[in-house]
Design a protein that fits this description.
The complex is a heterodimer of chains A (197) and B (475). Chain A is of the alpha/beta class and 197 residues long. Chain A has helices at residues 21-24, 44-47, 79-87, 99-108, 117-129, 157-165, 169-174, 177-186, and strands at 6-14, 64-67, 91-94, 111-114, 134-138, 143-146, 149-152. Helices cover 33% and strands 17% of the residues of chain A. Chain A starts with 5 loop residues before the first strand and ends in an 11-residue tail after the last helix. In chain A, 46% of the residues are buried. The chains are: A alpha/beta (197), B alpha/beta (475).
């Protein structure tokens, strides 16, 4: 996983709530068997509208998505995170994320930042008025900064540590091999099995 | 202090607990399908890791599979490549696979329970958000992303922070024609698509206890649509009776030991939930969605709401956008909404009871002119059972299409899709924009409402059908 320390970039203000994973990446894109090449599928239906914020020339190269509440609801498709990253987003700000989407984002180094809706509103107003306005998301200090706006955000220490260091979860877990083996040895024999082991 | 059902199952699976770290949880059952696993297997290959517990892993094909001409090569080369990738991965790593054409193939959340693999007190994961279905057995079951799929394949564990718990108590008797689907749609509208966020829901109360296993699966299936991490129902005699004798269910002394353990899986009387919701079952009615998320629903007898009636700006905005997308007008009676397509199937409502309920209404009636009705059984086993009961003949006799098992039009990854602007009444779980096909408009309904809607051509409940049955002997 790519490490995340701090990022500064221009924003895409997305004034929509309940942006579900079918909007982020429609199902027909899920037939691909790689983790890349999803950028053209990002918000595919909405991008057919030339006025959609992502299509505006002043938003090209923006890397911070500022979205409405309940971003990423719906399916468990990690492709939603890959599509955002493939497109060039480094971080997404919202007042509330769906659980599975949030978990997926943090495992891929896409920092999802939860801020109060009034701060999101302020970020929308700032970046709509001035498309060149930059937002800094600083994971080391757990703070979001933009012109006239400073807001702290929470992220549990363990997730922060893994993101800052770009650590691979599987390697970390396998350091606990003895614990896993001990648990397996003590499992009741009535538990289901898919094949005779 | 007592513990909730969710806390008990959680505690029984903690491999390692350390201050400042998420718990490391053991996973009893890992279900795989073709869409969310290829990148995970690639990760294993790159790291040179095996699948740790092949005996706790099983795969089937469902999302991409066609529901017609399944004996011919799959027409879409991209879908075919994804299915072939799963077959190669399962062969290379030694994973049990039930591919298209196999008698145990079907929607992954229908297959697990019918094999008896989904058992009380187990942890069940799958790279699919509707894994919450399995919570109907008192399992802790939740959807995961592809990185976590790889993590489980490699370690049979997941590092997870323990969610909070919410009790959803439903007391009283459900009125006639009111189903588990109506109940869960009403719950989601009540608490919202984010209402369950961060929680494991436990459905309890006399109305829940009376439900069959299949109805309980419908409820737990849609927990994710309320944003919840999982949904659970305490196992009871209904659960044990469903499981006894199934392929993977324990046998003999193992069965007795398992049941003794399963009987402990109830929230203690003094357990404290972090949140509670109480629903009166007697007040419920057939329920449908009018919008573009599963929380935008109303009783069938209601009208399309006026966005201006929402105090919250973001809800008002969402309702405006939804009505525009859905092509509806505020104040329009929901019963006046005509549909082009009716879909019966999916992990929500693709089991045998669902097909029986839809068939009972269609028997002796006809699908309205201009309406296409697709009936897609949740698995090959469900299809075989339906055929043995003659349900397929009821569907085809009424003018519906009887298809092969799979996810089908629930998400339109295969050729079963809505055309732009087409409107469906669907027993599936998501009414998102474009979910069933680009530009398609979805109303979520129960199998009974789906069947009645097919007959009348507009959203309807069985009670609206009094005089539409063809007299006996008339073709």
């Amino acid at each position: 996983m790519e490490a995340f320390t701090t990022h500064t970039g221009r924003a895409v203000p997305l004034r929509r709530s309940n942006v579900d994973t079918d909007q982020i990446i429609p199902a027909h894109w899920l037939k691909k068997v790689t983790r890349d090449g999803f950028e053209d599928g990002l918000f595919e239906a909405w991008r057919k509208d030339a006025d959609f914020v992502l299509n505006r020339p002043e938003r090209q190269g923006a890397s911070v998505l500022v979205a409405g509440p309940d971003f990423g609801t719906g399916s468990s498709r990690e492709h939603a995170v890959w599509a955002l990253q493939n497109f060039g987003f480094k971080t997404v700000i919202s007042s509330r994320f769906a659980d599975i989407f949030r978990g997926n984002s943090l495992k891929n180094g896409l920092l999802t930042v939860v801020l109060e809706q009034k701060v999101v509103d302020a970020l929308w107003e700032l970046t709509e008025a001035d498309p060149t306005a930059e937002i800094t998301v600083d994971l080391e200090t757990r703070q979001v900064r933009a012109e006239g706006i400073t807001a702290d955000f929470e992220l549990d220490e363990n997730a922060r540590w893994r993101l800052l260091n770009g650590l691979d979860d599987i390697s970390l877990t396998l350091q606990n091999e003895a614990d896993i083996a001990a648990y397996e040895a003590a499992r009741p024999s009535h538990k289901p099995r898919t094949i005779d082991a | 202090m007592g513990r909730t059902l969710a806390e008990k199952v959680w505690d029984d699976h903690v491999v390692r607990r350390a201050e400042g770290e998420p718990d490391l949880l053991f996973i009893d059952l890992h279900l795989l399908h073709e869409v969310t696993s290829p990148q995970a297997f690639d990760g294993l290959r790159q790291a040179g890791r095996p699948v740790r517990r092949l005996d706790l892993t099983i795969a089937t094909e469902d999302h991409n599979t066609p529901t017609l001409d399944i004996d011919k090569p799959i027409a879409d080369p991209v879908s075919r490549a994804q299915l072939e990738t799963l077959r190669k991965n399962c062969a290379d790593f030694g994973v049990r696979l039930h591919p298209l054409g196999d008698v145990e193939q079907g929607v992954v959340h229908v297959v697990g329970p019918q094999l008896g693999l989904t058992q009380p007190g187990t942890t069940v994961v799958c790279g699919d958000s509707h894994t919450s279905t399995h919570g109907a057995f008192g399992a802790l079951a939740f959807g995961i992303g592809t990185s976590q799929v790889e993590h489980v394949l490699a370690t049979q564990t997941l590092p997870l922070a323990r969610p909070k718990t919410m009790a959803i108590t439903v007391d009283g008797e459900l009125p006639e024609d009111v189903t588990a689907k109506d109940l869960i749609l009403a719950i989601i509208t009540r608490i919202g698509t984010g209402g369950g966020q961060g929680y494991i829901l436990e459905y309890r109360g006399s109305a829940i206890e009376k439900l069959s296993m299949e109805a309980r699966m419908t409820i737990c299936n849609m927990s994710i649509e309320a944003g919840a991490r999982a949904g659970m129902i305490a196992p009871d005699e209904t659960t044990f009776a469903y499981l006894e004798g199934r392929d993977a269910a324990p046998k003999g002394a193992e069965w007795d030991a398992a049941v003794a353990y399963w009987k402990t899986l109830r929230s203690d009387d003094d357990a404290v939930f972090d949140a509670e919701v109480v629903i009166d079952a007697t007040e419920l009615a057939p329920f449908v969605t009018w919008g573009t998320n599963p929380g935008q629903g109303a009783p069938l007898s209601a009208n399309v709401p006026d966005p201006a009636s929402y105090e919250d700006a973001s809800e008002r905005n969402a309702a405006e956008k939804a009505l525009e997308y859905m092509g509806l007008t505020a104040g329009q009676p929901l019963r006046d909404i005509s549909v082009d397509t009716v879909f019966v199937g999916s992990c929500t409502n693709g089991r045998i009871e669902d097909l029986r309920n839809a068939a009972a209404i269609l028997d002796g009636r006809k699908v309205a002119d201009g309406v296409r009705m697709l009936v897609v059984p949740g698995s090959v086993r469900v299809a075989l059972q339906a055929v043995s009961e003659g349900l397929d003949k009821v569907f085809t006799g009424a003018g519906a299409e009887w298809r092969h098992a799979g996810c089908s039009m629930c998400l339109g990854m295969n050729p079963d899709q809505l055309a732009p602007g087409e409107r469906s009444a669907s027993t599936s779980n998501r009414n998102f924009e474009g979910r069933q096909g680009k530009g398609g408009r979805t109303h979520l309904v129960s199998p009974q409402v789906a069947a009645a809607t097919a007959v009348l051509g507009h959203l309807a409940s069985p009670a609206d059908l009094s005089d539409t049955r063809t007299p006996a002997g008339v073709a």
